[in-house]
Amino acid sequence: MKKVILLGLVLVLLVAAGTLMYRKQAVAPLETLDGQCTAAGGTIKESLCCKGVDSGPQTKFPNLCAIGACGCAPEYSKPTKICDCGEGKCFDGSTCTDLGR
C-alpha cells in the first residue's frame, strides 16, 4: 500500500513539474522577444499598426511581411512595437527575411 501511495505522489510531482516547465516555454519573456529581433538584425521601433493587430506578450512584433498589419488609417491604428529589419527586409513574426519571399 505504501508503494502505491509513493508511486502516486511521484507521478503527481512529475506532472506538476512538467506543467510548470511547459508554461514557462509557452510565454516567452519580453526580453527574449526583443533579443530575437535584434539577433535577427532588426531594430525595435514603434509604428502605427491596425488596432486589431495583437501586440501581446506572445506576438509582440507583428508580421510586417504580410500586407495590412500596419497599413490602416491613423484613426484605426495604435502605437505598436515593431521589429524594423531595414531596407528590403521584413520581420515575418520570428526573423528578418527578404521582402518577396
Brief characterization of the structure:
The chain has a domain at 29-98.
Can you offer a commentary on this structure?
It is a single chain. The chain is an alpha+beta fold and 101 residues long. The protein has a domain at 29-98. Helices cover 35% and strands 22% of the residues. It has 2 helices and 4 strands, in the order ααββββ. It has helices spanning 2-26, 30-39; strands at residues 43-50, 77-84, 89-91, 96-98. A hairpin with a 4-residue loop joins strand 3 (89-91) and strand 4. The longest helix is centred in the N-terminal third of the chain and has 25 residues, at 2-26. It is elongated, with a radius of gyration of 20 Å.
Note the total helix count.
2
Strand order of the largest sheet: 1-2
Structural class: alpha+beta
Radius of gyration: 20 Å
Strand content: 15-25%
Average per-residue pLDDT, rounded, comes to 77
The biggest beta sheet is recorded as: 2 strands, antiparallel
Q: What form results from the Cα inertia axes?
A: elongated
Helix content: 25-40%
Order of helices and strands: HHEEEE
The residue ranges in which pLDDT falls below 50 over 5 or more consecutive positions are 24-28
Q: How many runs of DSSP E, i.e. beta strands?
A: 4
Produce the secondary structure layout:
Layout: H1 2-26, H2 30-39, E1 43-50, E2 77-84, E3 89-91, E4 96-98
Antiparallel strand pairs: 1-2, 3-4
List keywords for this structure.
single chain; two-stranded antiparallel ribbon; 35% helix; 2 helices; alpha+beta; 101 residues
